[in-house]
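Q: Hi! First time doing this. I have a protein sequence and I read that you can turn it into a structure. Is that right? Here it is:
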Amino acid sequence: MALKVGIVGMRGIGMAHADAHQSDELSELVAVCDVIKQRADEGAEKYGVKAYYTVADMLDGEPDLQIVDVCTGGMENGSWHYEPTMEAIGAGKHVLVEKPLSNDIEEAREMVAFATDEDVYLGCNLNHYFTEVAARAKQYVDEGDIGEQIYCLHKMGFSGGEPEGYKAPQAARVKGFPWFHAKAFLAHPFSCMRYFCGDITHVQAFCNRPGFRKRVEELLVSTLSIHVRFENDCVGYLISQRGDAAYGLGGWWSLELAGTKGTFCIENCIEKLTYWRAPSAPPRPEKLDTGKIEGPEIMDTGIADFGATFPRRIHAFLEDVTNGVPKEQLRGSGRDALATLEYTWAVIDSYENGGEIVRPNPIPILKGDPLTQND
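A: Yes, that's right. Below is the predicted 3D structure, encoded as structure tokens:
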């Protein structure tokens, strides 16, 4: 039976989520909510559901509601996530919330802890690894085709450059927030790196903003150069920038994971995966032999629309709730999203302390549920 869903926040992201819910057999969209009456009414008319203007009224008016999908934004794209999420969890509802989990680390920690206390599912829209290419890449990892992980390189952001007559953004969610890009965006690349390589234990960051931003006294720290170490001793590098320069090879999104048995690279998130098997013989630099790579194996999905990630990720959440998976096995969980924020705060700490190496705050330990665990 389809799960009854209500969406909070009916701007662009909310509409994208609504489209996904309406096309998914596991979901029954029954309500939309927005404090801006016009948005709620327009959403209700488009999707043929009831409009509400507060979360409390939606929870009261829809007692059979099972999932609340929080698509609000706010300062740094996350300041309006905490209140509706906590209201919904307090009412015993499962919650899927947009990234970042919050723009405040203490709020994010509370959200994860409260969901655990209330025994409800808390998921986050970490949609970048809910793709066919990511699934195949993870298969390479799980089946030993990567071997011991050596390095992970992730490049992700927006292509741009110095525009003529540049003016700093005036939007309230951006202006005056130096870490807007980091808080609003790093959830995606960090979640992908962690998905393939595991927890990050050390972070070192060197960040900047180009002259065209400095000249207009814009505070945004827009170029993020981040060096990390994973718990498995793999090292990694993440470069993310917000339209400061034109990206070259690999497009706006690429992730390369190299190991002792093979290497893969995902291009543009959902489009293409290439795998190279490691050479069977060691290189001989003295003979100008740099090593011959077998293959490659190429998976090209033919999908160019990044928006296709939304229904795939939302379906995974619906599937996990429908199947009643143990909370600690929820894909793209609140705990996973909290980890990306802990890394983001480590980036900020490192930059503000001259590039010091920072140990991220550890995420909550998984304890498991004795009612769902087998011996």
